[in-house]
Design brief:
Number of strands: 16
Largest sheet: 7 strands, parallel
Helix content: 25-40%
Distance between the termini: 49 Å
Shape: globular
Order of helices and strands: HHHHHEEEHEHEHEHEHEHEHEEHEHEEEE
Number of helices: 14
Strand order of the largest sheet: 10-9-11-8-7-12-13
Radius of gyration: 23 Å
């Protein structure tokens, strides 16, 4: 794989010579190719799907459909329409000695991406990296290998047609050895981004010798306050939980104020249609009995809280105050996305100021934590760390900067 790293590193240097107009032309051509060659992409994806149990919650995350491919193409066209993140003057000043300083945005160089069974990520990463002047090395999971190979083959074909070095994007084998090689590719990879579950992110953090930005793992809570609107809350909770259960912005734990336990059956009613299993504490369990399907209702255990389910499952906990809800989130939250449902602006303000997460919602579902939804075109991941980018990462977040200094013969005394 070292030869691949050498080729990608060399290709990354050529991106500086490609205009933004040329980059946009490539992205638009890839978007057209996605739509024109849907059958090829779907056939490759079906090969992957045939090896996964359809009842596996990750099946939906792995699956490509005609509509999803159209959405991917639309996102790629949106990225092409955005202004270039490169060459922007972020800061400038003139020193007393006459030196002129400018801090300008530049690409990282080569970005390595490690991700699980999510073939759409291959397109998203390429579009964002290419637009921002970065080459990328993709390391997908074995569950999506046929899909990823077809995707990268399509991108390579468009790049060759446009006269662009195809090594600006490469796909590594879906092996553990490839992961280890990417994480230790010092001198070739400038930044590595893992996108997946907690185990993947911990492995990358523990073994990487190249810089890493942590993304993805989301233990997401929603607090239904004493002053929450029941109809609004029911819709928000259902959307946050069931829109796509296998993604990191999906709801994992509902916190409900004790004074509103009588409304808990109505809040959870839509979840029953999706057969969501509920793991509730004693008070919530008593409120839901005879109002929620018994086979789907279970008592909570200590492991129920702090779990990222990625499935049709939800824990419910009763709290006596906003402070208790905040304490729970402090203890179990992962810094991804948190929500409060309340008509009290003061409580919402306290919640949003106190909660230490990348995205903090008031009366809106956490399912909106997404680069495309934020108007960023697409996303390369959702950062849950504080050093560097935080939240959905798109074009601006995968650039760095350098200082340009202009002098006129000054020397330092």
């Amino acid at each position: 794989m070292q030869q691949t790293f050498i080729q990608v590193k060399a290709a990354s240097k050529t991106l500086a010579l490609i205009s933004d107009t040329q980059k946009n032309s490539v992205l638009l051509a890839v978007a057209d190719a996605i739509e024109a060659r849907q059958n090829e992409l779907l056939a490759a994806n079906q090969e992957d799907l045939s090896q996964m149990d359809a009842d596996n919650p990750l099946y939906d995350r792995l699956m490509l459909t005609s509509r999803r491919l159209q959405d991917i193409a639309a996102d790629m066209r949106h990225v092409a329409s955005l202004p270039s993140p490169l060459g922007r003057t972020l800061r400038e000043k003139t020193l007393s000695n006459g030196l002129k300083l400018r801090r300008v945005s530049v690409p990282f160089g080569v970005i390595g991406m490690i991700y699980e069974a999510r073939p759409n990520v291959s397109f998203d990463v390429f579009s964002l990296c290419f637009k921002s002047g970065n080459a990328c090395i993709l390391k997908g999971g074995h569950d999506a290998d046929a899909s990823n190979q077809a995707i990268v083959a399509l991108i390579h074909e468009v790049l060759r047609q446009k006269g662009i070095n195809e090594h600006v994007v490469e796909l590594l084998p879906a092996t553990h050895e490839a992961t280890a090689a990417l994480l230790t590719a010092v001198g070739y990879v400038d930044l590595c981004i893992p996108r997946g579950g907690k185990r993947l992110i911990q492995f990358v953090r523990d073994h990487a010798k190249v810089p890493v930005i942590e993304t993805g793992a989301g233990v997401v809570n929603t607090y239904f306050d004493e002053m929450g609107d029941t109809q609004m809350g029911s819709a928000i909770i259902n959307n946050a939980k069931t829109r796509r259960v296998s993604v990191c912005n999906a709801l994992d734990c509902l916190l409900v104020h004790r004074a509103r336990l009588a409304d808990l059956p109505q809040l959870c009613l839509p979840l029953a249609q999706s057969k969501v299993r509920i793991y509730a504490d004693a008070e919530a369990l008593a409120a839901l009995k005879k109002h929620y399907p018994a086979p789907l209702l279970h008592g909570a255990t200590a492991q129920s809280y702090g779990t990222e389910y990625m499935d049709y499952a939800l824990s419910v906990k009763t709290v006596g105050s906003l402070g208790e809800a905040l304490d729970h989130i402090d203890r179990y939250g992962s810094g991804h996305s948190e929500c409060i449902i309340t008509q009290d602006a003061g409580r919402a303000h306290v919640f949003q100021q106190h909660v230490d997460a990348a995205c903090v919602y008031w009366n809106a579902p956490t399912s909106f934590t997404d680069g495309a939804q934020f108007g960023l075109g697409a996303e390369i991941g959702i950062s849950t760390q504080k050093l560097g980018p935080r939240g959905p990462m798109a074009l601006e977040e995968i650039t760095t900067y350098k200082w340009l200094i202009e002098g006129n013969g000054q020397i330092r005394p």
